[in-house]
Amino acid sequence: MIIVLKPGSSDADIEDVSRRVKGMGFKTHLSRGDVRTIVGVVGDDRAKEQLLALQSLDCVETVVRILQPFKLASREAHPDDTQFKVHGVPIGGTQLVVMAGPCSVESRPQLMAVAEGVKAGGAHVLRGGAFKPRTSPYGFQGLEEEGLKLLSEASKATGLPVVTEVMEPDKVEVVAQHADILQIGARNVQNFSLLKRVAECGKPVLLKRGMSTSIQEWLLAAEYVLAGGNPNVILCERGIRTFETSTRYTLDLNAIPVVKKLSHLPILVDPSHGTGHWEYVSAMSKAGLAAGADGLIIEVHNNPAEALSDGPQSLKPDRFAKLMAELRPLAQVLGRSL
Question: Structural domains in the chain?
Fold first, then answer.
């Protein structure tokens, strides 16, 4: 449920309502808008009828039951788009964000070359995998902690914040020491122990959609992070599994406007995984932004032919720079900036 306070309610009013709600055994999540403040209430649905009594308070406009199962991720609880910054980089809002880098951190020379290339091309965040979940047990599994150290070094050299994947709850602390954004990959979108753990770490979370995950299931996964006290969640559409074999996955651009209607959370598009072929990345990047995405996450490699993972879907740095140049006028047409 949500408690909508009247315009002009004071901090004391908000504190009083929050205290009363907590006294009933619920958790509260505040959403402050330009006019109204909304107190989101999370807890046992069977006990929420007692919250209706709070409508008698002078500062309360109404108490409303949220119909969606994802309470905190819902636009009913948080009407305004979520916006925050990661080391000065805006996430959400009118400015688009582009995260770019290699699928896997393979070596210092490789990572530094790619990091410098995406920085020159206009990327805002450096992506790179240190712990790599692979379909085959024989595939390259990543450099692990050594890869994290290399990402930190590349971040310091370029000034780009880092996003990298964390796969296990007991690795969250060490990944958070080196990364600015923690990525939950498609295979872990419903790893609830991991979701609860990243909620506690205090770092923003990039939550990729699972290859067979419905939009409701995806938003409920985000709910785990939000309910755990971490409001800075970024969604990422990266393609779903269908009958089509011409591309690696089917990039579900329908999900962008659907999520925008249902949720306040920012959403990115991953055209690299969504297509699996570098020659389609440019078109689907543009389509993703046109559909309303708040940014992109793109795989870039200095030598895709010799990449240890995902070479066929990786852009070379010069192609990435060309794509960024093509995206800038599109962003202006859409009323956004890049």
Answer: 2-64 (3.30.70.1140), 84-333 (3.20.20.70)
